Amino acid sequence: MEQAEETDRAIGKRLKALRASHDLTLDELATRSGVSRAMISRIERAEASPTAALLARLSEALGLSLSAFFAEDGQAEASPVSRTGDQKLWRDPQTGYLRRSVSPPGMPGRVDIVEVDFPPQARVSFPPRQESRSMTQHVWLFDGVLEMIIGETVHTLHPGDCLFMHIGDAFDFHNPSDQPARYAVILDRGL
Q1: Measuring CA to CA, how many Å separate 27 from each of 36, 113, 127, 179?
Q2: Residues 17, 89: Cα–Cα separation, whole Å
Q3: What is the CATH number of the domain that holds 166?
Q4: Would you say 140 and 157 are in contact if contact means Cβ atoms under 8 Å apart?
Q5: Per-residue pLDDT of the chain (191 residues; tens, 9 = 90+)
Q6: Is residue 16 part of a domain?
Q7: 109 shares a domain with 23
Q8: CA atoms within 13 A on the CB side of 36
Q9: Which residues of 75-100 are buried (b: 16+ CB within 10 A; e: fewer)?
Q10: Do 98 and 168 share a domain, yes or no?
């Protein structure tokens, strides 16, 4: 439980710092993100564990991708190598999916790579994101089965399959099987 509490504290501290750097009040961030003022305050005080969808909404309201939210500011010296042991991990408290930030932080590129271990029967829904219309992503499945639901269209991916998509539209990740799915998301921030 200590690891989860430490992660919640780090997320809260990061959210508060980002909000301050954008000169946003709790009310302004709430209005931009559609997340209640009370929930933002609870996250900043590490009293709540935000879900992936909630963090995506807050990140977008701050003009960031989820990967940029998890990246550290002010690293002493950025390295072009991202060692496995140094890569940031985050577990979604709602679904249990494990997200690993693979890309080296602090690099000037516009691409982020994330590895995800997605539990059996899990589903994560992302609402439409106006600010993210210029961002695209590739979802590349390594193990298991993954359904990507975009509007009325369901794309069923099997190992080796890769789906390209814009991320401004609402979409769902769904693992319809009884086995975990493992995949990479290659996000192009389109800057």
Answers
A1: 8, 32, 20, 42
A2: 20
A3: 2.60.120.10
A4: no
A5: 466 788 889 899 999 999 999 999 999 999 988 899 999 999 999 999 898 888 888 888 887 777 778 776 555 467 899 899 988 888 999 999 999 989 888 777 888 899 999 999 999 998 777 655 678 899 999 999 999 999 899 999 999 999 999 887 889 999 999 999 999 999 897 75
A6: yes
A7: no
A8: 5
A9: eeeeeeebeeeebbebbbbebebbbb
A10: yes
> Which amino acid appears at position 105 of this protein?
P
DSSP annotation of 77 reads: S
Whole-prediction pTM value?
0.80
- Positive or negative, the Cα torsion across 165, 108, 105, 75? negative
State the Cα–Cα distance between residues 53 and 65, nearest whole angstrom.
12
Residues 132 and 175 grouped into a single domain: yes
What CATH number is associated with residue 42? 1.10.260.40
- Domain span including residue 129: 84-188
Determine the 3-state secondary structure of 5 from DSSP: helix
Beta strands in the chain (DSSP E): 89-91, 98-101, 111-118, 123-126, 136-143, 146-150, 153-157, 162-166, 171-174, 181-188
CA distance 97 to 121: 11
Is the same domain home to 45 and 97?
no
